[in-house]
Amino acid sequence: MKLIWMSDLHFEADGLVQGHDPRLRLQAAVGYIAEHHADAAACLITGDLVETGSERNYKRLREGLSGLPMPVLPLVGNHDDRRVLRDVLPLPGSAMPGFVQYRADFEDLSVLCLDTLIPGQAAGNLCQERMGWLAAELAALEGRPAIVAMHHPPVKLGLPMLDPDNLQNGNELLDLLAGFPNVLHLLAGHVHRPCSGTARGIPFATAKSVLYQAPPPQPEWDWSSFRPAAEAPALTVLERTETGLTLQQCQFCDYALGAAGAV
Ligand SMILES: [Fe+2]
């Protein structure tokens, strides 16, 4: 069983975002998935679907994603508008009212998609209502394997400019997850960098952006000197195996595609 994982599309109907063309990058990703991974059960997108949360942007994004031969599991990021996202993009029937939080069940894996948005802030949080929903869903799985996906990473990653804007109550989330050994992996977006490790013994990974990449922490940088790294984008292919999961990071186009001024 295979899933595709994309993150941080920062889609806009017009213009460039951080010097990159979100329409060309999305088209390349969708084309790559349709050509090479049409057998995937779903395509998970861990938030920042759009750069600005207008209805027009979400409708154009929906058109751009329509070339995918599998259902999309959208998550909300700090650039998203929860209400407009819900109005335009279909969510599974299990979604919590008023949030972009739901469970999607596949043959031998469930995906718990969390809504970590605090409207108007870069950092994320899971309120008691959403945490309670997660506890109930984890219990309802009765040990069946699951992965947990969210926009904001629940742990510090050693990225000084990005760590302050992660999930504020990540420890609380990890306290809950520690009681469920059937949680095979955590997936997060937000940082536009591929990081992986363990958190209280649970493996986690963050993803490259489909659009633009954050530089590594060294050489040091701050927001006044921020320029996206000249790195190619990637998406990830997740496969359920006999022993657990594999995550394959796949470059779907060259850096130069849709990057202003790239040679
Ligand atoms: Fe982002």
User: Radius of gyration from the CA trace?
Assistant: 17 Å
Category by helix and strand content? alpha/beta
| Order of neighbouring strands in the sheet with most strands | 4-5-6-7-9-8
Element order, helices and strands?
EHEHEHEEHEHEEEEE
The CATH architecture would be 4-Layer Sandwich
Q: Given the C-alpha coordinates, what overall shape results?
A: globular
InterPro entries: Calcineurin-like_PHP (IPR004843), CNP_phosphodiesterase-III (IPR050884), GpdQ/CpdA-like (IPR026575), Metallo-depent_PP-like (IPR029052)
Family: Belongs to the cyclic nucleotide phosphodiesterase class-III family.
Domain Calcineurin-like phosphoesterase: 1-194
Protein name: Phosphodiesterase
Summarize the structure in words.
By secondary structure, the protein is of the alpha/beta class. It has helices at residues 22-36, 55-65, 82-88, 128-140, 170-177, and strands at residues 2-6, 42-45, 72-74, 102-106, 109-113, 146-150, 183-188, 196-199, 202-206, 235-240, 245-250. A 6-stranded mixed β-sheet has the order 4-5-6-7-9-8, with helices on one face. The mean pLDDT is 97. Bound molecules: fe (ii) ion. Fe (ii) ion is lined by residues 8, 10, 48, 77, 190, 192.
